[in-house]
Structures are given as structure tokens and as C-alpha cells.
Design brief:
This protein is α+β, with helices and mostly antiparallel strands. It is built from 13 helices and twelve strands.
Length: about 375
């Protein structure tokens, strides 16, 4: 004979102090697990939102990121007139040669310093990245040492307000606008004119090429042509694929999240065991009475497991709710690929919520199993004689 579900629910309500302790303990573990995983998901989402599936990104073969890539100016002249590249209405090839430079700048409120990525971009490069929009001020004018910075970076770094200037080496740049990258990797960049960037920072080489091919077939042909030509020593791939691979920063955060989750879950399992052992100890005579009334050991085990799983589920829901409060919150870290400031948002996805709930219930069931087995194996006579 099975025990009714309301028996487990009633016990959780009657012993409300231990119930609250168990729920809050598991909620804390789930909160940490989901929050850390949402950090990694936010970084991956930022890279995944970057780029146009039609564009082709070209960097130096062997380089791990654009900032570490160096491409000769002659390569640009050799590639720009390939027939696979689409043309504008004026017959100009749709290709952009970008220059990336790392500069060390002070944070706001004397918060130390960090590297910021400056992208020297051509007008054609701006057209190839339509997800980037101007949200304040105006775009830079070539030859005037002007820069447009990310609106999200502007909240973190000093002298990034429109009209202010900052210095890097011998170069002094004036902020004339803020850009918004639509949640992409461009939210972590500052843009200025490509030729001016090369001149100010004495760069003879480009960092990358961005190309818009005639069509998808032409894009595949262009990739094969560039990678197959030994003169270039270049790597070509779709822009979205390139940025999707730039997620090395998320790996340590995921590892840390899993490590903390495992460590804290062990503590949560023991806490749940202590709580359930105490609950079983105070209900020994009650369990003995249930056995006398004809309820089998299996029914007692199932009832206690239901109680533990229910409390764990409540803790999981509470922990996920706390974590979801941080969804969309903007923060930053150092990118392992570029060693620059990466701005991203916490991303609490439905998948993470589901994982958090499954994790909570698993911890609750494991923590309840041993006390439930002990209760079921208790001799009936000994249980009835207990105080």
C-alpha cells in the first residue's frame, strides 16, 4: 500500500524550521551553479551574436585572434580584385582591411587599468557590420584623431564621455560618439579610422580582412582559393564561425562553476542527510505506526524520497529565481584571446534553469536516500517503543 502524497507535504509544513533550512541550503547551491554558468553563457552569446553569415573573415594562419594577426599590405592588393568578391554600385570591391591595437587605459573611479581594443576600420568595414549603431554623438572623421567608443565600455572607463579625450603613448584621441553593438563582441571595442590608426600606432600591417562575396558558392570558392594559395599563408572562414570559436574565456568560468557546484553539492547532500536523519529520528514512532498499519518498507522509502525531492525542488526554484534576477546584468572580464576588456551580460537561459532544477532534485534525492533506507529497515517493535 502506497502512502498518500499529502503525507509528505504535511510533514514538510509541520516541521517548517527544518524545511526552511533545507530549502535555503539547496537554493544557495543552485544559485551559485546557475549564476556562474550564466556568465559563461553570456560570453558565448556575445561571440555568437557577432558577424554576418555572408561575410568572410581572413586572418594570418596560426593566429588565435585578430589582435595577434599580421597581414601584409601587398596581400590586400592581391586579394581585393578576386572575382568572388561582390562589388558596389560603383564597381568597388566590398572588402575592408582592419587594424586592431591594444591600449592600456584607466577605469572610472580609480578602479585600476585594463586593456581596451581599438579597431581601425574603413567606411566599407562599417557597412559590413550593420549591427553596430551610433547611439550618441557622431561618427569619427578621418584625419582628426577622433574615436567612437562602446557605450558599455564608456560606463567602465575614464575619459570615455562624448567630448572627452584620452591618451595612449604619443596619441591623443577625442571621443566623438558612442556605439552599440547589439550584444555582440563589438560592444567591447572602440572604432577609429583605419589609416589613422596605422599612422598613430606605427603599424605597417593589417590585422584582418572582411569580405562580402557574390554569393554563398563564391564564398566557399574564395575560402578554398585563399587557404590553398601558399603565397598568402592566410586563414579564411565565415565571420560568424570565427567569432563563435572565440570563446576560450568561457571555458575557465564553466570549469569554476562546475567545480563549485560539485563542492557545494557535497555539502548540500550532507546537510540534507542531517536534516532528514533528524526528521526520521523525530518520527520513529510515527514510522513504526505506519508499518503496523500495513504500509510496506517500499512505501516509507518512497514517501521520504518524495518529501526530500519536493524540498529540493523548492530550493531549486528559489535559487533559479535569485539567479534570474541577474539576467541581463552587464559586467566584464579579460578576454583570453585578446587580453582586453570583454563586456557581456549574464544570460540565464531556459536550459540553465532546467539544469539547475535537475541538479537540485538530484541533490535532494541523494541526501534523502540513506535516511529513508534507515527508517524503512527500523524494526517495528523498536520503533513503537522509541520516545
Amino acid at each position: 500500500m502506497a502512502l498518500p502524497i499529502r503525507y509528505s507535504l504535511r510533514n514538510a509544513l509541520v516541521r517548517w524550521r527544518s524545511t526552511i533550512a533545507t530549502v535555503l541550503g539547496i537554493a544557495l547551491v543552485v544559485f551559485v551553479f546557475v549564476l556562474l554558468q550564466s556568465l559563461a553563457a553570456g560570453i558565448e552569446k556575445s561571440s555568437g551574436n557577432t558577424g554576418d553569415p555572408r561575410n568572410i573573415m581572413i586572418v594570418r594562419k596560426g593566429s588565435t585572434a585578430e589582435s595577434a594577426s599580421m597581414i601584409g599590405r601587398q596581400n590586400f592588393q592581391d586579394i581585393r580584385y578576386f572575382p568572388e568578391i561582390a562589388l558596389t554600385a560603383k564597381g568597388e570591391p566590398i572588402i575592408s582591411a582592419d587594424v586592431l591595437v591594444l591600449v592600456n587605459l584607466p577605469r572610472r573611479n580609480h578602479g585600476g587599468e585594463a586593456n581596451v581594443l581599438l579597431r581601425g576600420v574603413t567606411p566599407r568595414g562599417m557597412e559590413l557590420r550593420p549591427q553596430v549603431n551610433l547611439v550618441a554623438g557622431r561618427w569619427f572623421e578621418p584625419g582628426k584623431r577622433e574615436v567612437v567608443v562602446s557605450a558599455k565600455l564608456a560606463k567602465r572607463f575614464a575619459n570615455f564621455d562624448v567630448g572627452q579625450s584620452f591618451k595612449s603613448g604619443n596619441a591623443t584621441l577625442t571621443v566623438v560618439g558612442w556605439l552599440e553593438g547589439g550584444g555582440s563582441a563589438f560592444d567591447s571595442e572602440c572604432w577609429l579610422d583605419a589609416d589613422e590608426c596605422r599612422s598613430l600606432f606605427e603599424r605597417d600591417m593589417y590585422s584582418s580582412f572582411l569580405i562580402h562575396p557574390v554569393d554563398e558558392a563564391a564564398g566557399e570558392k574564395l575560402i578554398a582559393r585563399i587557404e590553398g594559395d601558399r603565397r598568402f599563408k592566410l586563414k579564411a572562414e565565415k565571420e560568424v564561425e570565427y567569432y563563435r570559436k572565440q570563446t576560450m574565456t568561457a571555458a575557465p568560468i564553466k570549469w569554476l562553476g562546475n567545480f563549485l557546484a560539485v563542492t557545494m553539492s557535497i555539502g548540500a547532500v550532507f546537510a540534507a542527510m542531517n536534516t532528514m536523519y533528524a526528521a526520521v529520528g523525530s518520527r520513529t514512532r510515527e514510522i513504526g505506526t505506519l508499518r503496523v498499519l500495513g504500509f510496506r518498507r517500499r512505501a516509507v522509502i518512497v514517501a521520504l524520497l518524495l518529501e526530500g525531492g519536493f524540498l529540493a525542488l523548492l530550493g531549486g526554484v528559489l535559487g533559479c529565481a535569485f539567479a534570474f534576477y541577474w539576467n541581463g546584468y552587464t559586467t566584464a572580464t579579460m578576454g583570453m584571446e585578446t587580453f582586453s576588456e570583454i563586456v557581456f551580460e549574464f544570460s540565464v537561459t531556459p536550459k540553465l534553469v532546467l539544469e539547475g532544477l535537475i541538479f537540485a532534485v538530484t541533490v535532494g534525492l541523494i541526501g534523502t536516500l540513506l535516511p529513508a533506507l534507515r527508517a524503512a529497515r527500523l524494526p517495528v517493535i523498536a520503533a513503537l517503543k522509541s520516545l
